[in-house]
């Protein structure tokens, strides 16, 4: 039988039951690899359920630094009988299947091309613990201990993590270390340790951190000066506001009074959450809300108001698989068109598209500057994979002395000095962005009536066509200004000149870049463009113009970004070749590489179907 | 408009304590129908703000959509206004109030805007006890779309088209009491003597001050058989008491029979006196609800100040927000700097 052999380059997948405490044990495993200096990328694949349904945790270990999903699994740790058949089927030939053999495995579950590693987890727990809750929880810690022996994880790294985790609860440290030892010694006694797949300490992490995107987004809101978070709970965005509130309670308490330099209001629904953010922005506070697809649908009316009435607001959309309730705990990039053109009538909204926690932090802070400078809602377009999974990220950085850019807000003295009457919607300097005033600024100057109806340059209601058209054209001019202000696209040129390009954004980045390396090894060369924002900038426009074929990698069925590019840049549809993954799992390098290779081998043109190619490439090439 | 508001005022008009004239509190000329109750409400707001020495620019006027929601344009020209989307004024007001706790927030809504599409937001802004004045100009119909029944059209009330409403109506006053509003009153646009003090009390109250103002639609719901027409309301209106708003600095001259008056000290130190129905205990929601029911059974419309809870916590109190307006906080107040970030980074290693 073939055996996968790999050093610091393999994928382990844990199969657990939701609500059994497996998350912290699995996190312990990933963090241990991280602390051994090896790039690691965990993905939590969980159900829309609190307790009882199958959940998976897939950890990619890659010394080369590939942190997207690779595709395929080299080792499964299965502690969930419900999903056992599919878990066995998911192992690459030559891979390993670690399971609880307290009860024997039925013959039907036998595959003769994988290695079975049975550990009587339940029996050990029954022997060691009397409390049912402990039996459940420590089972998870025991298999992590076993993995330490099997994969050569440094044991002191694990005990160090236990100490960190239970700082202040020292009583809990010893039982956890004991559970680790139980698994460790069982594996040492019963298996030839380590396995041919194993880890070894490296120094490939540097200053990087392991953090989820939603935490970074919440911190970005704090550093960006947000004082009002209005929200309605929805997976997978909930932890954005939770992180904001948690860190605000540490960092934003007024030292003199003990009172809060922020407000978090849990709204009755997404409509109200958006309304509050707009009310706050109108009145001069930096305000935001966070939601997911269903919330975007509900907020659309308000987004149209804020666009037309020109009120700053920041909206975080952590996308999940739609349409409708869809797959609430699976990832997708499928709100692009809904966000770009949210609301009836002619509307357009700037989108900022981070691809790492560090960018979540930076773009979120920047979103408040842009919203106030442009006087319009700005949407941070994240997704479940980025928001809820831990990612290897550059550390979060803030330049001391950085000022908030509050845009054209006239204060009392500026109003006093005005020689002409104040015109709220008057384009005074040609960039399409008018001046605004805040309520309460001046006793007699600068007051105006904000409305969603058509108005003239002095905010007076009008139904006159020329005034309406003039205003709409100014909004178009403002959009052109926005084009120069949003984060620039990133270009990565191939070492070998090529007329092929690949365009991607957000969480498709890591897998696509890996696929590009794989294809280069097969003499297929691609220039890369990462879109960071909408409106599209000149760099993106030139990239599309200068390549004969541009693969557009997205995680949705309909090629929404491709449609947006066609619509906004007037790009020829035939040169934009869609590469679409929409099965709800983060896109894999294997899928992207295969899809592009297939397209280039003159397969009939058409949309690449969004299913992963299973078992085609043998995993763990080392 | 083919006509303009005159720019002069009578030389003997009085100034208030800010040295402002009544016309300093006025707004643009109304585009509502002649005789619309809403214009009387706007006039009452003007009068109340003038009398209360409110600085016009320290007020933020907010509304939703509908005839009533147009009216913030017709008072307080020097205040910022926000005519938002249908039924969503409460959320915009909440965000605005969170941003700056020092302004006065006056929301104007209608029966469609509040009791139908905006029911959810109304319920939640009341239970959060947002510090605002929330006025409903209640005409029992959708005026701007030509007279359809609304959720406050009384069962059996006959529309202009001659059809009796088949559905139970929603009493916003009862609802506000149940939802925890801390100042609850009902007025009538045709009774300025009663309405102006009610609005002054609402302005002085800290917390959610709600006034349901019956405000007839002269064009679509002023016909015989309607329970929201001028004639019907005048005939069936019963005041629970005569409310007077008396600032502390003025000597109390009104005299009421002993046992029939109550003093309610409000947050700005003013006093609101009520000669009330002996059945009503103004601090007790349940008594107000009972009274509403008994008047309704008699076919009468109960008006006046029905409930005040002057010691309630408003949303800022509950959330323990800073004393300074959040919108005035600077980088120094808001941005924790790289040192704090370094420590967070370290916790992610």
TrEMBL record, chain A:
Key words, A-Z: Oxidoreductase
InterPro entries, A to Z: 2-oxoacid/accept_OxRdtase_asu, Pyruvate:ferred/Flavod_OxRd, Pyrv/ketoisovalerate_OxRed_cat, Pyrv_Fd/Flavodoxin_OxRdtase_N, Pyrv_flavodox_OxRed_cen, THDP-binding, Transketo_C/PFOR_II
Domain Pyruvate/ketoisovalerate oxidoreductase catalytic: 19-184
NCBIfam families: OAFO_sf (TIGR03710)
Organism of origin: Biformimicrobium ophioploci
PANTHER family noted in UniProt: BLR6743 PROTEIN, PYRUVATE-FLAVODOXIN OXIDOREDUCTASE-RELATED
Protein name: 2-oxoacid:acceptor oxidoreductase subunit alpha
Residue ranges constituting the Pyruvate flavodoxin/ferredoxin oxidoreductase pyrimidine binding domain according to the UniProt record: 220-384
CDD domains xrefs: TPP_PYR_PFOR_IOR-alpha_like
A matching Pfam family: POR
Keyword RNA-binding: no
TrEMBL record, chain B:
Top-rank taxon: Bacteria
Positions of the Thiamine pyrophosphate enzyme TPP-binding domain: 65-213
Cleavable signal peptide: none
Record keywords: Oxidoreductase
CDD domains recorded: TPP_OGFOR
Chain ranges passing through the membrane: none
Name recorded for this polypeptide: 2-oxoacid:ferredoxin oxidoreductase subunit beta
